[in-house]
């Protein structure tokens, strides 16, 4: 006769985790696909505005820029929800193509990419704008290095396996027959610490991505911001189409 209370088996736990991970992934995938459709519509607006600057008032351009920045803010708000549910999913998101995943830096595009887009899409920057953007670029790169260091420290501090390995098993710990409860508890604690640390890093990285875009558009004139945002949307949608 067995003694003591027995919880669910590791197989049941793993199946439940798989179901939760699949459900979370599907929910965000559906949101993301709708978001991309809206992104395409916004790109059409940006291209039209870029081709008809003389017919658009500065207020009209600013309103368009504001709507598109709100569009990106919506993306990060939804992403934060799935990050809280399973942070490992956002490091290797199944809703991205393998090509898109190759460009990821801490679960998203590198914030410093914004400055390359500005350089490649805008040819009428003033000297003051150039100096301000160069300062912002240095600050952004410094924050990127800090986040890289923080991510490395998190993994090193608990001896975590590579993120890809964890993501493939959905953030589950492997449980083998005969493990002692103390070992299970230690493993659970380590995984909880890893998740908490990764969530904080992803949140900080997303905040840096959004704040960089806001700061860049603050420096640019409204017509320049339209060019910048058009270049960003084109890059994202092209990567998407090339990877499909």
UniProtKB/TrEMBL annotation:
<feature type="region of interest" description="Disordered">
    <location>
        <begin position="1"/>
        <end position="21"/>
    </location>
</feature>
<dbReference type="GO" id="GO:0006351">
    <property type="term" value="P:DNA-templated transcription"/>
</dbReference>
<protein>
    <recommendedName>
        <fullName>DOG1 domain-containing protein</fullName>
    </recommendedName>
</protein>
<dbReference type="InterPro" id="IPR025422">
    <property type="entry name" value="TGA_domain"/>
</dbReference>
<keyword id="KW-0175">Coiled coil</keyword>
<feature type="coiled-coil region">
    <location>
        <begin position="130"/>
        <end position="157"/>
    </location>
</feature>
<feature type="domain" description="DOG1">
    <location>
        <begin position="25"/>
        <end position="244"/>
    </location>
</feature>
<dbReference type="Pfam" id="PF14144">
    <property type="entry name" value="DOG1"/>
</dbReference>
<dbReference type="InterPro" id="IPR051886">
    <property type="entry name" value="Seed_Dev/Stress_Resp_Reg"/>
</dbReference>
<dbReference type="GO" id="GO:0043565">
    <property type="term" value="F:sequence-specific DNA binding"/>
</dbReference>
